[in-house]
Amino acid sequence: MRSAHALVDDLTARIRPLELELADAWWESNTHATPEAEQRRIAAELARQRLFSDADTFAEIRAARAKLADAAADPTADALVRRHLDILHDAFMPHQVPEQLRREIVELEARVESTFNTFRGTIGDRRVDNNAIDEILRTSDDSDERRAAWEASKQIGPEVAGHVRELARLRNRAARELGFRDHFALALATAELDEDRLFSTLDDVDRATEEPFRTWKRGLDELLAARFSVDVRELRPWHLDDPFFQETPAAGAIALDDIFAGADLEALTIRTYEGIGLDVRAVLERSDLYARDGKSQHAFCIDMDREGDVRVLCNVEPNERWMDTMLHEFGHAVYDRETDVTLPWLLRGPAHSLTTEGIAMLMGRLPRDPSWLTQVAGVGTDAVDAIADRLAAARRAALLVFARWVLVVTNFERHLYADPERDLDTLWWDLVEKYQLVARPDARNEPDWASKIHLAVVPVYYQNYLYGELFASQLAASLRERAGGLVDRPEAGETLVRDVFAPGASLRWDELIARATGEPLTASYLARELST
Ligand SMILES: [Zn+2]
C-alpha cells in the first residue's frame, strides 16, 4: 500500500484539473448560457463524479485513515494528512453506490432542475416569471391579484412533487446501501454535522425566537390587515411579500432603498472592505455584476483556482437588497482570497459551508448598521439617529423571519427522508403554521412544499444558513470585544484573516469556531441580539 502522503498527493493531482474545469464550465454556463456551455458543465460534473465513485480509491482512503487512527498517539503522524483523509473520505463516501442507482439520481435531479428552469406559472392566461410574481407580491394592494400571483408561484409543485418524492426514495436507498438510516443522516454525517447537536441547536433557536417572533408577527399582521382591508384572521400567505415568507415584508422592516437609489454599490463595497484592511478590487475586475440576457438571475461567488482568481456574479440594481447581496458575496470572496496559499491545494478553501456563509451574513447585515450607514454610506448622523430604533427593529425582524423559515425547511426535510410516503402536503402547512404563524389557505390540497427548489437540487443544506447566522452573531460579539466592532476597524479584518480565513480547511469547522471566538458555536449570541 502507498503511504498516506503519496495517496493524498496522487488524489490532489487527479482532483485538481477536474475542479478547475468544473469551475470554468460553471462560470461559463452561468454568464453565457448556451446548450454547449450546459453540456460542458454536465460533462465536467460527471468526470468529477466518476473519480469520487471509484471504489478502489475509496478503499485505500479508508485503510489509510484506519491506519492513522491506530497511530493516533504517534506524534509524527501529520495532522494535515489526517485532515486530507477526512475530507476525501466525506467526498467519496456518498458516491459509493451502485452505478445504476447513482445514474438514476443524477438524471432525475437534472430533469427536476430543468423543469424548474423552464416552467412558468400563469395568472389567467398570462405566463409569469418569478420577478413578475415578486413584483405583484411586493406592490399590489389587491388580495385577489396577490392570491393569483402566489398560486402561480406554486403551480410548479404538482409538476415536480412526484419526482422530488422519488428522489427522496432513491437517495434513501443509496444511503441505506452505505449503512445509514436515511439520506438525511448520511448528508449530515458526510458534512461533519452531528444530528443530535443540530436538533438541540434548532430547539435552542426555536425557544429564543418563538416569543419575539410572535410579538413581531402580531404587529405585522395588524399592518397587513389594515393595508388589505381584511380581518387579521383572513390573512393568508399571499398577503406576505414573497412566496415563502423567507424575507421581512416591507411593512415589518424599514425602507432604506432611498439611501441606495443613486449610490455606487461597487464603490461602497470597496470602501466597506477597505475599512477593515481588505482590498476587493482584484475580485471586482473579474466579476460579472449587472443583469444581461443569457446570464444567471441569482448571485454567487466562485473561487476559480484557489490561487487568487475569485469572481462574483450579481445582477446589481441600486437598492438595499443588492447592497446586502454585494457585501454578502464579497464576504465569501475575501474568505477565499485570504486563505493561506501555502496550504496544500485541497485544504485551500473554507472550513465548511457554514463558516463562509457566516462571514457573508456578517457582512450582508451592514446596510442596517448605524456605524456603516454614517461612516461608509455617508448618511448624516442625525438622519441615522432618527431611524436608529427602526434599524434595530429591522435587524431583529430579519433574524426572526429567517430563523423561523429555516426551522420549517430543516424539520420538513428530516420528516421527508424519514418517510417519503407520508402526507407531505399536510405536514408542510403544519410546520408553516407552527413556526411561521402563517395560516394555511382554506381547502387547499396541493404539494406546496415541492415548489421550493432546494428540496430537489440542494437537499439537506438549509441548516448551514442557520449555523451561519449563529456564527455571524457570535463573531460580531467577539469582534466587538476584541476590536471594538467591525466597521472601519482594521484590527477586525486582521482578526478575521488570521483566525478564520487563513486556516482554510486545515481545521474542522467546530474547532475553527472555538479557536476564533473562544467558545464552541452557540445560539446564545443570536438570542442576545433578539432580546436587546
Ligand atoms: Zn452565501
Task: Report what the structure shows.
The protein has helices at residues 4-31, 35-52, 55-70, 79-92, 99-118, 130-139, 143-154, 156-177, 183-189, 195-228, 257-260, 265-274, 281-286, 320-337, 353-364, 370-375, 381-418, 424-436, 453-457, 463-483, 490-501, 509-517, 524-531; strands spanning 121-123, 126-128, 300-303, 310-313. It is mainly α and 532 residues long. The strands form 2 sheets. It has a two-stranded antiparallel sheet. Strands 3-4 form a two-stranded antiparallel sheet. A hairpin with a 2-residue loop joins strand 1 (121-123) and strand 2. Helix 6 packs antiparallel against helix 7, helix 10 runs parallel beside helix 23 (524-531) and helix 17 (381-418) runs antiparallel to helix 20. The N and C termini lie far apart (59 Å). The model has no long low-confidence stretch (mean pLDDT 94). Bound molecules: zinc ion.
